[in-house]
Amino acid sequence: MYLDTRPGREDKLNEDYVAATVNSTSARAVLLDGAGGPSELPTGCNHGTPWYVNQLGDHLMFNMRNPSTPLTTALALALDAVAESHGVWCDLNNPGTPSSTVIMARRVRDRVEYLVLGDSTFVADVNGEIITVTDKRIDEVGADLWQAMAALPTGTPEHQAARIAFVENQRRMRNKRVGGYPIASNDPDAAYESLTGAFSTREVRRVALLSDGATRFVEFGLGSFADALDILGSAAPGRLFDRVREAEASDPAGARWPRAKRQDDIAAAYLPGHLKVAAAGGIVGAAMTS
Ligand SMILES: [Zn+2]
Asked: Which residues surround ligand 1, an ion (CB under 5 A)?
């Protein structure tokens, strides 16, 4: 099993979150990619996005422990609980209130279940076939504003102004039923808009949970999702992050790979056959190290 996250900037707290636990009867993993947005924009929250993803992630890991609780319900309950934790001094109706993508994966008996909300990616090697699940509904919102930003060199005031216009629009469209996209934030009903599914534990060889900072590896053409799984399962899994950072450094202005941020937070969780072994009471960890 491998878990890691790396901040996009030295001077800002990481807004990604990743956690996993494996024991003899179950396995659970969560990855979140919080949307903080440019510091110029208000959020109405006194805590901040790093606090939000830590709260949400810990609630999710706890709520998932009961196999009879569906992942969507576990997420809805967690969203409710974190909304409560903000307290009365935070304005949750502010369009900039912290939000996050969500990936949850869980082995329950003979099934590997997943939930995806937002543009993080769940990757499963199912009998050698690489299956990816990501929720691109967010990309359909403000595509014209994204294009306007992408045409400008990253790091310039013009690019930053275009980025602010893009993010302001994205914020307004959060969890809007018409023309918007569902995301983890102040609305528990968003949980029921998640993409969910399951595989048989007998067929799942390995899985990964990746933030969009990590899927830049594929987006930038540095390798395939199978290559990403191979690197994460190797003796030097950190090479995946290194390769992305090297590519970002080689294109600081975003001329080759237009993007909102020069460097993004990166997070990844990789579970080899951990999610596969189903025998209750069996010893999972030793047998499954690959
Ligand atoms: Zn708050």
From this structure: 45, 47, 86, 90
